[in-house]
Write a structure and sequence with these properties.
Blueprint (H helix, E strand, L loop, with lengths): L2 H8 L15 H14 L3 H14 L9 H7 L20 E12 L2 H9 L6 E10 L2 E8 L9 H5 L6 E5 L7 H10 L4 E3 L17 H12 L1 H8 L5 H13 L3 E2 L4 H33 L6 H10 L29
Parallel strand pairs: 1-4, 1-6, 4-5
Antiparallel strand pairs: 1-2, 2-3
């Protein structure tokens, strides 16, 4: 984009109503907030950081001040959609769902740190859907909202057909099954029933929950997990850990609307980082003309051999290993 296009996108379009007119577009506000999240900067420091970046690249653009960023962060924003190159082109998706707590730093935490006063911590639940390591949907609620009640708001953000829906036991219940089947009639729902769950004789014979209970009673819970692929739920736990390690486990914003904006931008940042990582891995694979056995094997091999393409003579192994001295096997006397 040239300077003229950047300038036009940075400034807010002229309003058609009376009163004060916004000076900065949503792009300018989201850019400053995103850079602040990536580098862990408060709003005042993010303002100066954006100013320095624009000066380095030679763009003479006004930068939103920290008070404007704080005020505009309260504007409701729709969840960021995946880029076209990250959307599956064929077949339904496998949706994994889980929730976690994000700490809210407020006056009670200040009193606890300053004077040692005991207070209840406020938390926000972050529900994530992840398929192929991407965050497809998210919902921020207060600490009193139940996990199962957020399934429908999450699925409303997913336009693709669902092939399998996997969640932990907190989502067990017929309302969750009904919500998923309304979204995708042929979706397989994999949720471990409670230990005290029993088959309901008056329910539909095709009830997936009854089949899960019967399979667990007949073969055990571990075999049921292996047959249904329940172990893939660990991917969403990894996504939550990735969010907390990169973005942080504490919300910086104070108002609930600004906290929703913060989580929306944080999920978009992680998806963008994953897209760049996948593109780099794909370039290494195409350069070596090797089709990996699976995406997981390719990811593990790339993490082990950073910036080194796999050897063309074999699929497994690391070419860097060939340069390392081998320790001779010890022989018994």
């Amino acid at each position: 984009m040239d300077d003229a296009g950047t300038l036009s996108s940075w400034q807010a379009p002229k309003g058609t109503t009376r009163g004060g007119q916004p000076r900065y577009s949503d792009l300018a506000i989201e850019t400053a907030l995103t850079l602040g999240l990536v580098f862990g900067l408060p709003l005042r420091q993010a303002e100066r950081f954006v100013t320095s970046v624009l000066n380095l690249i030679g763009l003479d653009l006004p930068v939103p001040d920290h008070t404007t960023l704080s005020r505009r962060a309260n504007k409701p924003r729709a969840p960021k959609r995946l880029h076209d190159d990250r959307i599956p082109q064929s077949g339904p998706v496998h949706v994994l769902i889980d929730s976690t707590g994000l700490q809210v730093y407020g006056a009670s935490q200040w009193l606890e740190e300053k004077h040692g006063a005991k207070s209840r911590r406020g938390w926000r639940k972050l529900a994530l859907d992840a398929d192929s390591d991407d965050i497809m949907a998210h919902v921020v609620t207060d600490q009193d909202a139940g996990d199962a009640s957020q399934v429908e708001p999450l699925l409303e953000q997913i336009d693709l057909l669902i092939g399998q829906f996997t969640a932990d036991g907190a989502y067990d219940g017929e309302p969750t099954y009904d919500t998923v089947t309304r979204h995708s009639a042929d979706a397989a729902v994999v949720i471990p029933p409670r230990a005290t769950a029993v088959e309901r004789p008056d329910s539909d014979p095709s009830s997936q929950r009854n089949r899960h209970i019967a399979a667990i009673n007949a073969n055990g819970r571990m075999k049921w997990q292996a047959e249904t692929g329940y172990g893939k739920r660990s991917l969403v736990e990894t996504a939550i850990g990735r969010y907390k390690s990169i973005i942080g486990g504490r919300l910086r914003a104070r108002s609930f609307a600004a906290q929703q904006t913060e989580v929306t931008l944080g999920c978009a940042i992680l998806n963008r980082m994953l897209g760049l990582r996948t593109a780099e891995i794909r370039s290494l694979q195409y350069g070596s003309r090797i089709a990996p056995a699976s995406k997981t094997a390719s990811r593990l091999r790339y993490d082990h051999c950073t910036n080194v393409p796999p050897a063309s003579s074999r699929v497994s192994g690391c070419p860097a290993d060939e340069d390392q001295p081998r320790t001779p096997a010890s022989s018994s006397p």
